[in-house]
Write a structure and sequence with these properties.
3 helices, globular, 5-stranded mixed β-sheet
Length: about 180
């Protein structure tokens, strides 16, 4: 199975549209969203084409293919308009024999890990900084931000297929890659 993973759309209709176009073209079976879907939050500038109502309409159109966790900018009000679950603080994904703890990253992160075992993967967004690193016995992955990337990175998303996590920009260039079996 092929997964597309994205985080931190922050209400950008422009980047949500690009993400969904790329999702359709990729052949991915599921879109995993790591939170901060509709709102930009007090620390971020408005993203390009800030239009939360457009974003929710686009995402509701593919609701049956979305797995989502709650970000620190997501609220119960968002769940009232989004037609897929968004309020879970984490999701456990068992993919190709690997346990992936998917969360936004504002609660659980490298310095505050959830219960994990050797070989597990922590997948999160929140920082807007892409990452694919081995940290001791676990792997830490972050697809970066779709709409408000930081540290000079371009807008990015990730593809997880056959045990390989690839972070890509919207031109299809691989920015970083990590084999989860290593």
């Amino acid at each position: 199975m092929k997964y597309m993973i994205a985080s931190d759309i922050h209400g950008s209709a422009f980047y949500c549209r690009k993400l969904l176009e790329t999702f359709e073209a990729s052949g991915a079976n599921r879109l995993v969203l790591l939170g901060d879907i509709l709102y930009h939050g007090p620390r971020n500038d408005l993203p390009k084409e800030y239009a939360p109502k457009e974003v929710l309409a686009m995402l509701n159109g593919c609701k049956d293919r979305i797995y989502c966790v709650r970000g620190n900018c997501d609220t119960e009000v968002d769940q009232m308009v989004l037609e897929f679950p968004v309020m879970a603080d984490y999701a456990l994904l068992a993919i190709d024999g690997i346990t992936i703890y998917a969360t936004h990253g504002h609660v659980y992160h490298e310095n505050h890990l959830p219960p994990m075992q050797k070989g597990d993967v922590l997948l999160h967004g929140h920082t807007h900084v892409l990452r694919a690193d081995q940290c001791g016995d676990i792997t830490i992955l972050n697809p970066g931000s779709v709409s408000i990337p930081k540290e000079g990175n371009p807008p990015t998303y990730a593809i997880l297929e056959d045990g390989v996590f690839r972070i890509l920009d919207f031109e299809g260039r691989v920015i970083k890659e990590k084999n989860l079996g290593e």
